[in-house]
Amino acid sequence: MSNTTADVIIVGAGIAGNSAAYYCAKKGLKVIVLEEEMIGHGGSSRNGGGARVSGRDAREMPLAIYATRHIWPNLKEELGVDPEYRQNGYLVCGYNEEHKKGIQNRIADAAKMGIDMYLLEGKELKDKHPYVSDHVTCAGWTPTDGVANPLTATLGFYKRARELGARFITGEKVEKIKLYKGRARTVVTQNGNTYEGGKIIVAAGFGGKEIIKSVGLFVPVFKRLIEVIVTEPMPHMFDNMVGGMSGFYGQQTVHGSFVFGNALGREQCFAEITTPVSSSYNPANICHTIGVDIPALKEAKIIRTWSGWTDMSVDGVPIIGNVAEVPDLIIDIGCTGHGFCPGPASGYTLAQLANNETPDVDISKLAYERYDMAKKQPQYY
Amino acid sequence: MSRYLDRSADIGEFIPQPDDDLIICRCEEITKGEIRKAVHLGMWTMTEVKRLIRPGMGLCQGQTCSKHVKGVIAKELHISPAELDDLTARPPMRPVEMGVFGNEVESHE
Known about the structure:
The structure holds 2 protein chains of 2 kinds. Chain A is of the alpha/beta class. Helix content of chain A is 27%, strand content 28%. Chain A is built from 10 helices and 18 strands. In chain A, strand 10 (183-189) and strand 11 form a beta hairpin. Chain B has helices at 32-40, 46-53, 66-77, 98-101, 103-106; strands at 5-6, 23-25, 30-31, 96-97. Chain B has a domain at 18-83: Arc Repressor Mutant, subunit A. The relative contact order of chain B is 0.15.
């Protein structure tokens, strides 16, 4: 085989693409990974690092459960890079009766999947989480959720896959997929290069939308901007992930700095910008929210803010799996801002699909075929 | 789009050097040896090295060490420093307290 031919071509070097490359290489498959920018340029490195199962749609829960039970706990040894995974729980803060009902719904959903989640109120909440202010009246607590470091996890999979012989090429933007006898066979890049593979995996986040359009597939995903603040290292305050029904989320990293993001509701206004940029008002909004909920952090100094894209699918869960009408094409798109935790499980599943195995994880509810509407009326998507 | 880089290209073995314990990033206390090792793990851009081992992620946000980090990486890859992209500049310019930054919204309550 020439060096532009492989068993599997993976488009996108994020956590799903890198972990798929790692699991494919482990199975002895020859892999080429093509990435437009650098390794982990997109959402895989630009997220709060929450590794949570709670609060998820039942359709994507199997992936998140598989990742937190079977993959994350052993990653440090497996990759030789510490992804700083800590299963220390996730606290979701509520501020009124409506939020309390929302948390109770989440608890009911979690119970259906065998996940323990509890409602904390009053003295119990204050005793267990003394850092939250009186503004927080109730909270959901999921002890099996956790946090990880998106940067080292994504790069760790790359490092290990590369060691196992996967070939990574960055600065190689895939423009289209070409069919041969109706099956996905080659990809063509902006530099004019062509790569040929037995299977083609598209795990390129929002960028995947245009790529799979080249074979006539329409996925209803759109971009949303997220902005996050990072503080200087601070004395230890908590080990768990913290979030709020108001939309904020964050953690104190192993390094000691706090990382916080927030959903402001105005993100859609920036969807047409090509480079994600930090604004002055969203980080200010995050600081304000944190100041109200965790008052001790008012003193913490922000040393940087950053932003990134998430690829939102219209129904809030990703599209993962084979596509019936284009054999040999496997897609993973639309993770909707919570694709980091299940990312390694997605990669594991993509590798199984690429090797013609039946996946260990049930992804039938994440199939592309659920978007019949999108196929019939693409003008609306 | 970034510059084309085939990450399987041969850059040679990691060879220890006498000054590998020299601190390059003062904020995060990252040594020359650590940066060189990261390059040999496959981190071929400023940003990837930063994300894996943290040079340029401390209080000064790389305003002091960036140039030196770039020099070390470029030498390890046998290329000119000019071929490496800079780190993305991240606001704020200087550390700001959360209470100060979040203040402007308070009046709307």
